[in-house]
Amino acid sequence: MTRWVLRCRELPAMPDAEQAFRALFGAGRCTYWLDSAMVDGPARYSVLGECAGPHADVLTDRVAAPPSTTTTSTVYDRLEGRLAERRVEVPPGLPAELACGYVGYFGYELRAHDGAPSPHRSELPDAYWLAATRYVALDHLTGRAWVVELGTADTPACWLDEAAAVLADLPASGPRPGGRDPHPEPDPEPWLARPRDTYLRDVRHCLDRLRAGDSYEVCLTNTVQMPFVGAASEVSEEASEASEAFEMYCRLRRRNPAPYAAYLRLDDIHVLSASPERFLRVDAGGYAESRPIKGTAPRGDDAAADDLARKELSASTKAQAENLMIVDLVRNDLGRVCEPGSITVPAFCSVESYATVHQLVSTVRGRLRADVTAVRAARACFPPGSMTGAPKLSTMRILDRLETRARGIYSGALGHFGLAGTADLSVVIRTAVIHRGRLTAGAGGAIVLDSDPADEWDEMLVKAAVPLRALVVPPCDD
């Protein structure tokens, strides 16, 4: 039986994350950067690495259409099996949360594995997970950093020395991304799959369904789709797209820092996320936490207007109603996998501020039952309730009739499952997906009984603009 080991070496100083990624993983085809680009919030760690070396492993899944009659394992089953096989002792000094196992995403249509088939099919895999075999781990709270390599007891480390030597020649970590962006907001409206009249009609249909009692809250979404062209160069079209996708992500993290930001390169798929929302975290003690967001207001143009926007959001009965219904849904989801009586709501409708918006955020926590793994907990709560509405199944049926295409990676979950039983997954929002010359980005909002269709349209546009901000390249200084 293979005995897996996680070897690590602490670095003398924290390297600059962007330069470290470029130096170590910039040429890789299966790379990841789970990037706490805004670290004065709930996120603490960043992990950047690649799936490479003798223990590389890639797990993907596509929901069959029509459903297969053969008995094949799902990506959940395979992930759980691999994590159990590769479970390790965490090296002394390395936080358990940084014993990464697999990094990747669950797409929205993966819900079909649990009795919620969708009439739409994504052209991309419905799940994509990479073994985290070589990576750099950063603790932004303490300023500590490590290079980490997964191996077996009978094989020596082969990458740590090389990685440490490369990082030693890089400058130490610089200032964090942050600050308001003075550049104009992009206009997503010309690229939306459903134009204004159609979206307003769909909001009104949702209101009809709410009044009929078919749902309490409907999280309606739209999709931006536009051409994406890599920089002109002598390299191949695919390499050019990969280069420009990464540069776009670097601009995005500078202009819109977020606690659960991420960049994934999965062969020819590029995921650029500035997500502010935690779907599920499982810590080493077996506690699960979700931080649903409902209630959004754009930032003001000056300090007085910004403070007013924040206060108005905090006092909004509509936003509080949206948040309350999703908190109840998350409590119900966690109740299926947590010990009875352990679920609490430590924070309810707290206002958190990001580069372009204020949002209402709540925190729901519970202790997982002893027989529940992090993968099982994620499956029980998937898809994120903040992206469906309540109740989940009947509301998703309403959405399926209105939304004209698969959501794909958008509205799913992205992050990592660890080798010590931990997990940290974000909700895939404020995210651009680039694939073969096309960029897509989803956006939407929660429809409740007192929703105004025009206001819902405006809120959706604010959210849709976030991942597109990195397309607006500022002029060079004279």
Automatic annotation (TrEMBL):
Region (Disordered): 170-194
Pfam families linked to this entry: Anth_synt_I_N, Chorismate_bind
Domain Anthranilate synthase component I N-terminal: 21-146
Enzyme class: transferase
GO molecular function per UniProt: 4-amino-4-deoxychorismate synthase activity
InterPro entries tied to this protein: ADC_synthase, Anth_synth_I-like, Anth_synth_I_N, Chorismate_C
Domain Chorismate-utilising enzyme C-terminal: 196-463
Keyword Membrane: no
Keywords: Aminotransferase, Transferase
Gene3D superfamilies for this protein: Anthranilate synthase
EC number: 2.6.1.85
Name assigned to this protein: Para-aminobenzoate synthetase
Species of origin: Actinopolymorpha cephalotaxi
Lineage: Bacteria, Bacillati, Actinomycetota, Actinomycetes, Propionibacteriales
